[in-house]
Amino acid sequence: MYDITNYSMHRAKQRGLEIRSSHKLHKKLDVYKHGVYVASVGDNRYLDYPTYIREKGKKYADERRRLYHERHPQHTVREDLARWLLW
């Protein structure tokens, strides 16, 4: 199960969202708005921005973030949420 970072909690609060560790296979977060389930985001088999910062440092994490944004343009609600909460 994914340990929710302060970074993700702060970002969720900025958008009025509630996040919980997901119980779905290979998902990091379940996202709720006003108590209503919105989506499950993030693949727990891959690292995210706050994890890269913790494990490899901010400079490396910033480069990984840049590359993530190049690979994953926003198209769906789930992609937008993953980008906002994890990157």
Architecture overview:
With 87 residues, the chain is α+β, with helices and mostly antiparallel strands. The protein has one domain. Helix content is 47%, strand content 22%. It has helices at 6-14, 49-56, 58-71, 77-86, and strands spanning 18-21, 27-33, 36-43. The protein has a three-stranded antiparallel beta sheet with strand order 1-2-3, covered by helices on one side. A hairpin with a 5-residue loop joins strand 1 and strand 2. The longest helix is centred in the last third of the chain and has 14 residues, at 58-71. 21% of the residues are buried.
Question: Could you report the average pLDDT, rounded to the nearest whole number?
Answer: 96
Counted beta strands: 3
Helix percentage range: 40-55%
Oligomer: single chain
Biggest sheet, open or closed, and with what strands and sense? 3 strands, antiparallel
Radius of gyration: 12 Å
State the helix count.
4
In the sheet with the most strands, the strands line up as 1-2-3
Gap from first CA to last CA? 19 Å
- The SSE order reads HEEEHHH
Count of domain modules: 1
Q: What's the overall geometry?
A: globular
Question: Which regions have little confidence, pLDDT < 50, spanning 5+ residues?
Answer: none
Secondary structure class reads alpha+beta
**What amount of the residues lies in strands?**
15-25%
